[in-house]
Amino acid sequence: MTLSERNTFFRAGIAFCAVCTLLLLGASFLVIPLYQEAGSGMFFGMEEELRRSTGIFQFLSGLFIGNDYFAVHVSLSALVLFSLVGIMLIHSYFERTSAPEIFYIAIFAICFSFEAIRLVLPLHSIFNFSSFYMRVALRFLLFARFFSVFSLFAAGVCAAGLEVQKTRNVIFVMVLAALVITLGVPIDVLNWDTSFNIVNGYSSMFTLIELAAFFTAMISFLIAAKTRGSKEYIHVAIGVLLVMVGRNILLNTDNWIGPLPGIALLSIGTVFICSKLHKIHLWL
């Protein structure tokens, strides 16, 4: 992929993220009044109480504070805004710098815009649209999540020595893998948790897949630090760890303890990754 083609992709990503941000803003005017009427029990037309969301941080914070749908809205909104701001900064920072890994980091950032789809749950109580459309929307969300994880994995493998000329092949494999997982997951549109996440089948197995992809990305950057003789890749690996933790918090938190550390870790980790990659490739 040439520098011109990559920058065109960045600009298209900015446009897409901007549209998602506007859609989020419009949906917010509709759903925020619902949060004021909702308790922690029956909500959005669900027949049963929503389950508390999962995750280590969420489990610990959930012991001390109950769920708050405003906090969930802030968390998913932060992810969508992060996606827009992130891709804009990546385009500005790397417009004239060739860094093969940053293409995959950009995909990772863009995919957070799909988190706006989680608002399909409260919107359903307003428009009562068909469960078919909910199921399609949720599969798009699952695809985006796995595609983003695989993108970060590809960035690490690229740093460790993957040939740049194989970018299209890598994208094809990533799309295929994400599709296989997404289409194979059983989805029950009536089974949600308090962070507006669908409770899908095989969740433990897919959590392990995500963790394996993240840690493989970290290890790949550490390998790159040794093989390329650049300690900056160690900081990139640290950034991947921070991003992983921040992402997990923002995806699963359902109370006010989560948004601030989640946003901070995700932002700091991304700055670590981008600034160090820029420094590595600036003089190449």
Q: What would you note in describing this structure?
A:
The protein is mostly helical and 284 residues long. Helices cover 71% and strands 0% of the residues. It contains 10 helices and no strands. The protein has helices spanning 3-37, 56-62, 69-94, 100-110, 120-127, 131-159, 167-184, 203-227, 232-252, 259-281. The longest helix is centred in the first third of the chain and has 35 residues, at 3-37. The radius of gyration is 19 Å and the shape is globular. The protein starts with a helix and ends with a helix. 42% of the residues are buried. The model has no long low-confidence stretch (mean pLDDT 87).
Q: What gross morphology would you assign?
A: globular
Largest sheet: none
Unreliable residue stretches: none
Distance between the termini: 17 Å
Radius of gyration: 19 Å
User: What's the total helix number?
Assistant: 10
Helix and strand content put the structural class at mainly alpha
Beta-strand portion reads under 5%
Mean pLDDT metric: 87
Which percent bin holds the helix content? over 70%
